[in-house]
Amino acid sequence: MPSLAIIGAGLAGISLARLLSDRYTIKLFDKSRGVSGRLATRRFEIGEFDHGAQYFTARNPHFLEFLQPALSQGQLAVWKPRLRTIEVGKPLSKRSWFEPHYVGTPSMTSWLKSLAEGLDIQRECTIQKLERQAQGWYLNEQWGPFDWVVSTLPAPQTDQILPGQFDLQQVQMQPCYALLLRFSEMPKCRWEAAVVKNSKLAWLAWNQTKPRRSPQPCLVAHSSNAWAQQHWDQDPEISKNQMLEELWKVTGFQPELCDEMAFHRWRYAHTSQPLCRPYLLEHHLQVAVCADWCLESRAEAAYLSARALAEAL
Does the model's pTM come out above 0.70? Predict the structure, then answer.
């Protein structure tokens, strides 16, 4: 069988590997110690946090079918938090979700870890160079040859390792900051998740309210993408303190109830301008690209992009 290297072991990369496993010999490469990309969970001494994507939805019948085994085995569950809108100076307003919102159980990463079982994944490996030789593709002058190579990395990182192969200039991606806080006791709170308006913050969620989580009160606070982009170059410690000050103002929580915290920066968190094509493919060079940013900034788009490319390959 032809060989295929997939760069990135998030939802797009793992889905592509599963969809093509009977037609290609596949090896995945990821810079992280685990898998999952932005469907991520971080475990600290202070607690456990889904610090990336908080949930995902499924509207396409192909994606729904893809999820069914995980749903039936309890690796995915529907999250139904008390959802509110918070805006300083205004009363809380109730929000409703009109479709299922899925989370991995017992962590956001659990589903993808299960999906990745049995795949050949080279972890803690940052691919910085791709070279096409007579025998095929080589990665970092170490791995290869491969007949095909596919990047599922964010558009700017794909552009770095495949310079000039595809026109990705139209794709725009924005960052996000995640402030992660453990509380000694649960503050008085009339919400379990909240959208924040007109603020440095955009989203708040109590991690323990998701199915099969630890009961320890752990709060995830995400910044707005626009604010993170405007302040990306400043000292991360300053950004953390600014978000923390905003959190106390927005929620009215007593700071002394928070006993530990951590901070994470997502460089490519949100696609504000997608490619508007499901994938890119160069038959002559046997190189391709698929990712959520090809279609829209949703987890479902990562799968649909991978599925469309798998059909083409």
Answer: yes
